[in-house]
Amino acid sequence: MSQTKNIRNFCIIAHIDHGKSTLADRLLEFTGAVSERDMKKQVLDNMDIERERGITIKAQTATMTYKAKDGESYQLNLIDTPGHVDFSYEVSRSLAACEGALVIVDASQGVEAQTVANVNLAEKNNLILIPIVNKVDLPSAEPERVKKEIEDDLAIDSSDAIEASAKTGIGIEDILEAIVSRILPPKDQSSMPVKALIFDSWFDTYMGAVSLVRIVSGAISHRQKIKMMSTGKNFEVLKISKLTPKPVDVKFLQCGEVGILAGSIKTVADTQVGDTITLASKPAEEPLAGFEKARQMVFGGIFPIDANEYPVLKDSIEKLKLNDASLTTEVESSNALGYGFRVGFLGLLHMDIIQERLEREYKLNLIFTAPTVVYHVYPLEGEMIKVENPAKLPDPNKIDRIEEPYVSLAVHTPEEYIGAILKVLQERRGTQVSIDYISTKRVVINYEIPMCEIIFDFHDKLKSISRGYASMDYEVLEYRPGPLVKLDILVNNLPVDALACIVHKDFSAYRGRIICKKLKESLSRHLFQIAIQAAIGSKIIARETLSAMRKDVTAKCYGGDISRKRKLLEKQKAGKKRMKSVGNVEIPQKAFMSILSLDD
User: Fold this and answer.
1) Burial 39-59 (b: 16+ CB within 10 A, else e)
2) Which of 40, 104, 143, 316 is 20 to 30 A removed from 477 (C-alpha atoms)?
3) Residues 6+ apart with CB under 8 A from 438
4) pLDDT computed for residue 556 by the predictor
């Protein structure tokens, strides 16, 4: 009899706030994996940020035992995946560890952008999809309309879709029965050489780097020597556990099972997501397909407000990197801000989370510069160079062309907001691909747009003009050439490197004017006049002047000769001129953030 016959590996696909974590809670509760005493909301979300925002950032697993109506006991391995596009590679590896997926759609909101993206990923991995219409207990629920959307948008047969309410427990048993009856067991490859897929990893203070793995073939036992196929490094297995969702130690993991492995592994970089683990004594010939290095898409500068906090910032970033191998950092020095780091992120949400964790968990006061993307710069002589920091852009006279990344953007929206959304997309240099009606009231707008145009305030703007109803999803397409220039910002005739940005030539004057205007509002007045200028090369394209604070030096003169007053005013004028030549202008954090939102 097959060893894997009673194992089912599945994940849950859903848009943010469609009830994924709540459904996971109910499944754990129904199967008795979590006792009533230990039960809390979002059991599988460990971080405070995950709980507050209602999102999943790190993949989690839970092994449950379920006695089905056919009388047999089944081992159900739930792999709780991140839902956001920034973590699409992690999602793809988690999906590769499964044979099936529950596709949850909110009964009132219908199919949203991220559901479509992750269903497409699941279909590429040949998963069996079980559609679930969640939140049917809501007064605004329209299960029949949503079932039609599931068929039209996702191309999934919804005739046997399960109507459920994760909050009240409606349909939970039907979902468990569907998992057992519809999802296939893993292939029995017990006799083959060991291959285990790493679909998540983190750093533990006591155990070192811990890998969350799915055993694809063979079996791994305690004290065996294992080998990472991407790096060729060998380690000894010192701990094997199953998450139920609490860790329970076991002697081995067999084919088809999911669990955690820990050994003498010092860094998370040695346990990269998507890597294949095999035995050092009998290695497999080929690794599992699909392994990629993490690709950083967005870069930003992080500087301490107080220069003395730099060692603390360095220490904090090192600790974060222990848990997140996808972060890249390099030391950066800025004339205006001193020493800090240039950090590479997977995307906008990833950047937002890292910033929040640094400020919250490590109690740091930081300045974050505006995010940028990676540009491909082709010099007149030599090879192409990748530039993510505008300050490192070569002299314009030495550049042949600059290429920027484009993304394929899908915006799901109710039809009444189409006009406003199209206007914003056109302003951001987007090219329309298609507008598809998925129902009489809902539309998918597909655009190709430069990535740098959506990393500023695009998501906030989309949410505000659609009253929160529109959702977006994007994937990187390719690099395309464009007339791009470096826009320098000068304060008191000195360039502020942290405010420099790479912009489209046609929009440079407009953006320069707005940045100067915003800086004028953000900067404090001094005793001397401050010139705020935007320049391309040596050409000034915009200017604002912050007038000086004036002290009335003639107040003490009560009559007498006018020449005495003139003498005092001339002395003040000379003093201000000298002060201007040596005076420093302090630039606050809000000034750096002001260029993130460039509305009039």
Assistant:
1) eeebbbbebebbeebbbbbbb
2) 104
3) 111, 149, 152, 153, 412, 444
4) 63
Are 188 and 4 contacting, i.e. CB atoms less than 8 angstroms apart? yes
- Coil, strand or helix at 389: coil
pTM equals 0.67
Q: How far, in Å, CA of 238 to CA of 211, rounded?
A: 12
Helix (H, G, I), strand (E, B) or coil at 376: strand
Neighbours of 559 (CB within 10 A): 6
The answer to which of 98-102, 411-415, 461-465, 562-566 has the lowest mean pLDDT is 562-566
Cα–Cα distance measured from residue 294 to residue 317, given in angstroms and rounded to the nearest whole number: 18
Q: Comparing C-alpha atoms, which of 91, 81, 53 is closest to residue 475?
A: 91
Orientation angle between helical segments 143-154 and 113-124, nearest 10 degrees: 50
Mean pLDDT of 545-563: 67
The highest-confidence range among 82-86, 88-92, 279-283, by mean pLDDT, is: 279-283
b vs e for 198-228, b when ≥16 Cβ sit within 10 Å of the residue's Cβ?
Answer: bbbbbbeeebbbbbbbbbbbbbbeeebebbb
Cα dihedral sign, 230-233-234-239: negative
Helices first, then strands: H and E counts in the chain = 13, 30
Q: What is the rounded CA–CA span in Å between residue 522 and residue 501?
A: 18
Q: Determine the 3-state secondary structure of 86 from DSSP.
A: helix
Whether the pLDDT of residue 600 is over 50: the answer is no
CB burial of 502-537 (b: ≥16 within 10 Å; e: otherwise) equals: bbbeebbeebbbbbbbbbbebbeebebebebbbbbe
Q: Which two tokens stand for residue 286?
A: 């080929």
Identify which has the larger pLDDT, 226 or 589.
226
By percentage, how much of the chain surpasses pLDDT 90? Answer: 1
| DSSP notation for 241-265 | EEESSSEEE-SEE-TT-EEEEEES-
> How far, in Å, CA of 132 to CA of 162, rounded?
5
Tokens (6 digits) for 498: 């942290």
- Whether the per-residue pLDDT at 50 is higher than 50: the answer is no
- Over range 464-484, report the average pLDDT: 80
What does the angle CA 498 – CA 462 – CA 458 come to, to the nearest 5 degrees? 15
- What is the rounded end-to-end Cα distance, in angstroms, of the chain? 70
Non-local (6+) Cβ contacts of 382 within 8 A are none
pLDDT surpasses 80 at 205: no
Q: Report which DSSP code applies to 325.
A: T
- Place 222 in a pLDDT band, splitting at 50, 70 and 90: confident
Is the distance from CB of 105 to CB of 164 less than 8 angstroms?
Answer: no
Map out the domains of the chain with their CATH numbers. 7-182 (3.40.50.300), 195-279 (2.40.30.10), 298-369 (3.30.70.870), 376-482 (3.30.70.240), 486-594 (3.30.70.2570)
Q: Which residue has the higher pLDDT, 221 or 290?
A: 221
Q: Which residues pair with 107 in a beta bridge?
A: none
Compute the average pLDDT of residues 143-152: 86
For the residues of 547-600, what is the DSSP string, one character each? PPP---TTTT--SS-HHHHHHHHHHHHHHHHHHHHH------HHHHHHTT----
